[in-house]
Amino acid sequence: MAAIPDTHLDLLQKKKTFAHLATVMADGSPQVTPVWFDYTGRVIRVNTAKGRVKARNMTERPAVAISIMDPDNPYRYIQIRGHVARSTEQGGSAHIDSLAKKYLGQDKYPFAKPGEVRLIFEIEPGAVQVMG
What we know:
- The protein is α+β, with helices and mostly antiparallel strands.
- It has a single domain, classed as Pnp Oxidase, Chain A (Roll).
- Helix content is about 20%, strand content about 45%.
- Strands 2-1-5-6-7-4-3 form a 7-stranded antiparallel sheet.
- It starts with 8 loop residues before the first helix and ends with a strand.
- About 25% of the residues are buried.
- The mean pLDDT is about 95.
């Protein structure tokens, strides 16, 4: 597993940044989505609803890439290529609520739909490149 350089940890731990998550479609083409995320010090965690395209892609083809740009300096960023090491429904609702607190300042995720099942995907970094 590749290490995140100390010089860019702020983008994963301190700043309110969005990640652009690239997954692979069944036909091999890329699919990119901006996502909320958190970093545990080992894995990057993203959350999505069961049945969405990125959820299917990460379940069926676990290779992913993530790009995170510094909101204060667009010439400073980190790119991470890795794979989904684990996914779970357990704790999915609590996780999206914690991300809503980080990104919106709200205790509960306000966009939940009735019956929606939330999934957590844990991404292990395999290669890391930085700029700035």
